[in-house]
Specification:
By secondary structure, the protein is α/β, with parallel strands linked by helices. It contains nine helices and 33 strands. The strands form five sheets. It has a 15-stranded parallel β-sheet that branches. The N and C termini lie far apart (76 Å). The relative contact order is 0.05.
C-alpha cells in the first residue's frame, strides 16, 4: 500500500510536493523500493515495522522514520533530497547507508541503534551535510563512517557508544569541513578511530569518557585538524597521535589526568594551556613507544616560537639525556661527560664554571709549588695563573708551558689540567656543533 502510494500518480497542487504521512501504523511485509524514484515526501512517524525496509538505490525526497521501531534499515546507494530523519527510532539490527547521498543531514537525536557485536550503523562513504546523534543517542554496536564526507560536522555530544573490545566509532579517512564534536558526556566503551581523517575545524573530546581495556582508546594517527581538544573526564587506554597535523593542541592542565600518548611525528603550532616545561616533559617520557627524538624537537620548536628559549633548551637537553639511555655503555659514559661539562652544548656556562674552578685550583697549586725553568732557554716571568691557563687551553700558547717544567706530584697535576682542557674543549665543540646544526 505504501509502495503504491509513493509510486502511483498523485495530483498535487502546482508548486507543492505531495506527502505520504502515516502515524502509528503497524507495517507488515517488506517495504521494497529498489532503485525507485519517489516524488513524494515519505513521513512514517512512530510506525512499527515487522521487516526491515529495503530502499537500495532509490531516489527519495525528505524521508522520516521518526520514533519508529525497525528490525533494520537498508538504504545503500540511496539518494535523499533533504534530511533522513531517524530521530527517536529504536532499531534492532543494522542501519545501512553506505554510499548514500543525503542532501540534508542524517538525524539520529535520541535514537537507539542495537546490533551488539556487529554494525549498528554502516555509513561507509556516506555523503551528507552532517550526522547529528545527540540528546541521548545510544548505539550498541559499531558506528562505521569510513571515508564519509560531511560538510556540516559530526555531532556526537552526549552520545553513548558501546562495543566493548571492538571499535565503537570507526571513521578512518572521514572528511569533515567543520567540526567533530564528541564532548560533554560523550561515552565510548570501545575504540574511537579517526585515523587519516581531515577536519576543517576542531575535534573535541572535552569531558568525554574513552574506555578500552586493551590497546588504544583513541586512534588519531595522520589526523589533520585545526584544533584537537583532549581533555576527557575519564580515560582507560592509550591515545595514538602519531604523524597527526594539528593547529592548536589542547590538553589537560592537570598532568595527572593525562593519558598515555603516542606522539612520534605529531606536528602542532600551539600547545595549550601553558604549563611548566617539566609537566610537558613528563608527558613525553610516558610515551609507550619509548624514546623518539621528534616529539622533543616539536615541543622545543613551539617554545622557541613563543620566545621561551630557556624552556626550549631544557627540552632539547632532556632529549639528549633520554637518548643516552638507549646507547651502549661507552657512549653513555661520553654522554655523562658532555652532560656534566657543557650540558650537551645547551648549557655552555657549565664549561666556564669548570674552567674557572680548574684555573683557580691550578693557580693555587703552582703558586705553592713553582715549576722549574727549563735550563738553557730564555723564559718569561712565571705567573701561576697564566701557566695554569696555558695548560688548560689546548690551542692558545702563552709561552709559559714551554718555559717551565713541573716536578714531582705537580707534574701529574699538570697532565690532569691538560687532559681536562682537551676534554672540556672537545665537549664544548661537540655541543656547539650540535646547536649550530640544529639551527
Amino acid at each position: 500500500m505504501i509502495r503504491s502510494l509513493l509510486l502511483g500518480s498523485a495530483d498535487a497542487i502546482s508548486g507543492e510536493t505531495p506527502m505520504v504521512h502515516l502515524v502509528g501504523a503497524r507495517v507488515s511485509g517488506k517495504l521494497r523500493l529498489l532503485f525507485a524514484e519517489v516524488g513524494c515526501v515519505l513521513w512514517l512517524e512512530e510506525c512499527w515495522f515487522e521487516e526491515a525496509p529495503q530502499l537500495y538505490g532509490a531516489k527519495l525526497r525528505v524521508t522520516s522514520f521518526g520514533g519508529s521501531r525497525l528490525p533494520g534499515l537498508g538504504m545503500g546507494a540511496t539518494t535523499v533530497d533533504g534530511n533522513l530523519d531517524l530521530m527517536n527510532c529504536r532499531v534492532q539490527g543494522r542501519v545501512s547507508v553506505p554510499d548514500a547521498r543525503i542532501g540534508g543531514s542524517l538525524l539520529l537525536q535520541s535514537a537507539h541503534l542495537s546490533n551488539a557485536g556487529g554494525l549498528a550503523l554502516d555509513g561507509t562513504r556516506l555523503e551528507a551535510k552532517g550526522v547529528v546523534a545527540t540528546d541521548g543517542f545510544r548505539a550498541d554496536g559499531e558506528l562505521r563512517l569510513l571515508q564519509a564526507r560531511l560538510s556540516e560536522g559530526l555531532h556526537l555530544r552526549g552520545a553513548a557508544l558501546h562495543r566493548p573490545g571492538g571499535e565503537a566509532l570507526s571513521a578512518p579517512g572521514i572528511q569533515v569541513s567543520t567540526n567533530i564534536d564528541c564532548s560533554e558526556g560523550f561515552h565510548a566503551d570501545g575504540a574511537v578511530t579517526l585515523s587519516s581523517a581531515t577536519v576543517g575545524g576542531s575535534v573535541s573530546f572535552d569531558t568525554a569518557s574513552l574506555i578500552r581495556t586493551q590497546g588504544n582508546a583513541l586512534s588519531c594517527h595522520h589526523l589533520q585538524a585545526e584544533e584537537l581538544l583532549l581533555r576527557p573526564a575519564r580515560t582507560a587506554g592509550g591515545m595514538d597521535l602519531r604523524h597527526a597535523a594539528i593547529g592548536v593542541l589542547r590538553l589537560h592542565d592537570d598532568r595527572h589526568e593525562q593519558p598515555r600518548l603516542q606522539l612520534d611525528g605529531l606536528v602542532y603550532r600551539s600547545l595549550e594551556p601553558h604549563l611548566p616545561v617539566n609537566h610537558r616533559l613528563e608527558l613525553l617520557s610516558r610515551d609507550p613507544d619509548g624514546y623518539r627524538p621528534q616529539p622533543y624537537q616539536q615541543l622545543a620548536t613551539v617554545y622557541q616560537s613563543i620566545g621561551q628559549d630557556r624552556d626550549a633548551r631544557t627540552v632539547l637537553l632532556t632529549r639528549q639525556r633520554h637518548r643516552r639511555t638507549t646507547l651502549p655503555w661507552y657512549a653513555r659514559a661520553w654522554g655523562h661527560v658532555q652532560d656534566a661539562t657543557v650540558g650537551y652544548g645547551y648549557l655552555p656556562e657549565r664549561a666556564a664554571v669548570w674552567l674557572l674552578a680548574l684555573l683557580a685550583t691550578g693557580a693555587t697549586v703552582f703558586a705553592l709549588h713553582r715549576p722549574l725553568p727549563l735550563s738553557g732557554t730564555r723564559h718569561p716571568v712565571f705567573s701561576p695563573v697564566i701557566y695554569s691557563l696555558d695548560l688548560l687551553l689546548p690551542v692558545i700558547d702563552f709561552g709559559q708551558q714551554r718555559a717551565f717544567q713541573p716536578t714531582g706530584p705537580t707534574q701529574w697535576f699538570a697532565w690532569l689540567l691538560i687532559g681536562a682542557g682537551w676534554l672540556l674543549a672537545t665537549a664544548l665543540a661537540t655541543g656547539i656543533t650540535r646547536v649550530l646544526s640544529r639551527e
